[in-house]
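Give me the fold.
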Amino acid sequence: AAEKAYTNITPKSLQASVTNYQVLQALSPIAQLMLDIDALKPTSADYREKVDAARKSYTTNIGTEVVVEKPVNIKERVAKDYEPKIDVAEKILKAADDIVAAISGLKTLPGQQFMDALSKASLDYKEAPANVKKNVTNAKDLTALEKDYKASLTVFNLIEKLPPLKDKGYVKKVDAAEKAYQKLNETQRGYVYNYQTKLAGVLEVAQLI
């Protein structure tokens, strides 16, 4: 507001009479920093960029200002009241980044490791605050993997629950498990890691009964 009032002085020659304008110039970037920090919203598309910009501006304009209980100048006030807001924003992004990394790494994991990691990533995302979820940029990948996993887990459990060979329903259950497996896509089949060890080898036997 002070900067705007100075700019609007007419005639311009009167601006020279504002002898403390240099003070205003020195305070202007700090005031802008405060406004920028207060405007940070985790739901905004450019949240990360704005948080990074706020941290850079804070480092430039405030530096290593010591936090005091009772600030006596503008820099001390910003250090006490505004840097914690940047810290909170950075923690939100760090939590989101951890989930993003976990999701990104899922496709590289085999069998049981994948199932365990997917279960943890799903739980972490589910329990994350809304402001963290908003910044998980690959959440759609997680949803797709959960969908594949759900289909795979159904077949996995069918195989795990196959009865002993002497059971009367053995052939039907083997056949049902095989048909369910064949309906899966290639990605989903890859997650049914007990197929080769517990179903593929008994298909011929079941056909002979």
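The two ends are 89 Å apart (CA to CA).
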